[in-house]
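Re: the 609-residue chain
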Amino acid sequence: MKAFWRVLKRFAAPYKRYLGGSLVLNLLSAVFNIFSFALLIPILNILFKMDQTVYEFMPWNGMPSKEQLMNNFYYGVSQLIDKWGGSTALLLLGLIFAGMTILKTSCYFASSAVMIPLRTGIVRDIRVMVYNKLLSLPMGFYNKQKKGDIIARMSGDVTEIEVSIVSSLDMLIKNPILIISYFGALIYLSWELTLFTVTVVPVMAWGMSAIGKKLKRKSLEAQEKWSDTMAQLDETLGGLRVIKAFVAEDKMKERFTKTANEYRKASGKVAVRQASAHPVSELLGSIMIMIVLWFGGTLILSDRAPIDASTFIFYMTILYSVLAPLKEFSKASYNIPKGLASMERVDKIMNAVNEIKEAEHPAEMKGFDESITFNGVSFSYEEGREILHDINLTIPKGKTVALVGQSGSGKSTLADLIPRYYDVWKGSITLDGTDIRDFKVKDLRSLIGNVNQEAILFNDTIFNNIAFGVENATMEQVIAAAKIANAHDFIMEKEDGYMTNIGDRGGKLSGGQRQRISIARAILKNPPLLILDEATSALDTESEKIVQEALDRLTSTRTTVVIAHRLSTIRNADEICVMHEGRIVERGKHEDLITIDGYYKKLHDMQSL
C-alpha cells in the first residue's frame, strides 16, 4: 500500500478539494444509513407486538446516554401509536425510512460523482506528463525502445492505472468511513457481540491477501505481453508494403498469433485470480454471518441476553452492511497491484534519464557570426563501439560543406551532433568559439533547419505543415516559402489549396511533393544553418531536378551541411569531406579531390559508370 499512497501523493495534490467533498458526503451517507436501519427496531416491535414496556419521557440533562436516547425514542413511538394507531405509526415510520434512504443514496451518488473530476484529471495529468517526457527525451532513448511498447504504455498501462488505482481511490475513501461508522454502531449496540465479531474479520483479510499476493507480478507479465502485441502491430503497419511484396502474410499471421496467444495466457492467469476473489469473499462473509448469528442467537436465548430480539435483528442488518465495504476494500486490495504494475512500466519512461543536459548558467545566444567547429570529436552510441574518431572540421558561416562516403561511415551521426540530438563523447563542438553545450538546447536548435531524406510530415493541412514551428505565420509568408520551394503550383492544383489535408505522413502526396513541402517549411523558418540529409536521394530524376532547384535557392544565402550519396548534387560545395569508418579521410573541392585519385575519385567513377 505504500506504493499506492506514493502514487496518490504524486498526482492527487491538485484535487484535494474533491477528496474533502467525498469524505463529507460519505460520512453523511453512513450516518443516514445507520439511522434508517435503526427504524427497523420500532417497526418490528409494532408488527410483532414484541415490546409491552410502558415508557416515560426522561428529561434531557447534559450529554444523553444510550438508555436515555432509546427510552425517549420508544416513548415518542408509543405516543404516536396511542394517538394514531399502529398502522398509521407504521406508515409514518416507513415514510421516514424512505426519506432517510433517499438522503443516503443521494449522498452516496454525490460522493462518487464528486470523484469523477479527480479520476479523469489524474489520468489526463499522467498522459500529458508521459507525452511531455517523451518529447524531452533525446534521440538515443528511442534507439533502445520499441515504438509499439511506448504506445502500449501510453494507452493500455495508463488506462489500467485509471481502472485499478484511481477508481480504487473512491473505494478507499468510502469504505473505511462506512466500516468505522458501522462498527461504531455495532459497538454501541453490543460491545460483547462486536468483540466476538472482530475476532472473525482477520480471517477474511487473510483470505483476500492470499489471492492478491502474486497479482502484481502476473499483471506485469501480462502488460509486457500486451506491449509485444502492440509492437508487432506497429511493425506490420510500418512494413506492410514489404510484407505484401515478399508474400509474407502467412509468416506475419503466425508471429502475431503466437504473440496474441502469449498475451492471452498471461492475462488469463490474472483474470482467474480476479474471478476467484468475489466467491472467496462471499464465502468468507457468509461464514462470518453464520458464526455471529449462532453466537448472538445463543446470547438472545440465554437468561442474560445483552440485547433484545429486535435490536439483534438491527445488529445483524448493520453487520451485513459491513460486508459490502469489506468486500469492496478487498477488491481494491487486489485491483491496486495490477495498477501498480502498470505504474511501474510508465515510470520507466517518467524516470528515464535525459542525457542531453541543460547548462546551469547558459550562455547568451547572440546568433551565428563566424563558424561551427568540431574539435577532436569522438562519439559512440554504445560503449566499446566508436562511430566517429577524432573529427576536426570547421564550417565557416555562409559556406556549404558536404559529407560523402559509404553507408555507415558516420555522415548522419556527425550532422546529428550539431543540434545536440546526441552529445559528443570526447572533444567539443563550438559555435563562434562557445561550446554548444553551454547554450540552451532550444536556442541552439532555433538556429538550425533540417531537410531529411524522408520528408517527415503530419496528418494536417499543407498550410500547417509548412508553418510548423513558426508562430503566427501568415498565409502570405507560407505562399512565399512554397514558391521558393517550387511547391506553390502543385498546391494550387489541389481542391482545397493550402487547406488540403495531406493524410498520415503526407501519404496523399508524391515523394517529390512531400520533399518540397519539407523544404518550404525550412525556408519559412529561415534558419542561418541548414542540414540537408540525403534530401534528393529517394526521388526520381524529374522530381530531383525540381527539388534541387529549390534547395539551391535555399542554400544560396546560408551555411549548409549537406549529406549526399549523389555526388552530382554537391559538385559546387565549398568543401567536400569524404568519410570512411568514422574518420575524415579526404577533404577539398570537387576538382581537387578528383585529382587526388583516392576515395572520392573511386565514388565518382562508380557513379559515372
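Residues 40 and 456 are 72 Å apart (CA to CA).
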